[in-house]
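Retro notes (design track)

What went well: tokenization of the new backbones is finally stable.
What didn't: we kept losing track of which sequence belonged to which structure.
Fix going forward: every design gets posted as structure first, then sequence, in one message. First example under the new rule, 104 residues:
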């Protein structure tokens, strides 16, 4: 979810900014493993307002336009905070040979 280090929602009402932030957070986690968005094979995008999927898709496409992972957009009733519009799960294949230690 698009939140700061304390879990406070970022960009209330802005679907594209929240998707971009989620994907940046996923990218950071992948980098810690010696990986990148290029290794993502599937994403699941959970939306509290599924009618806004084109906005989410536009932000998703900016990151994955050359990678084209399998992707599902799923409507959900709510997330942990009313200002969260989106949550994204990503599955990536990361080689153990290239993955370094993960620091918390």
């Amino acid at each position: 979810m698009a939140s700061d280090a304390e879990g406070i929602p970022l960009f209330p009402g802005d679907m594209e900014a929240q998707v971009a932030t989620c994907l940046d957070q996923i990218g950071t986690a992948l980098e810690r493993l010696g990986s990148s968005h290029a290794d993502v094979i599937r994403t699941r995008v959970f939306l509290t307002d599924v009618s806004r999927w084109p906005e989410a898709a536009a932000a998703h496409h900016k990151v994955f336009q050359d990678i084209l992972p399998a992707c599902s957009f799923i409507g959900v009733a709510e997330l942990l905070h009313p200002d969260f519009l989106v949550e994204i799960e990503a599955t990536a294949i990361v080689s153990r040979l290239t993955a370094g230690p993960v620091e918390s």
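Added context from the reviewer: The first helix runs from residue 15 to 32.
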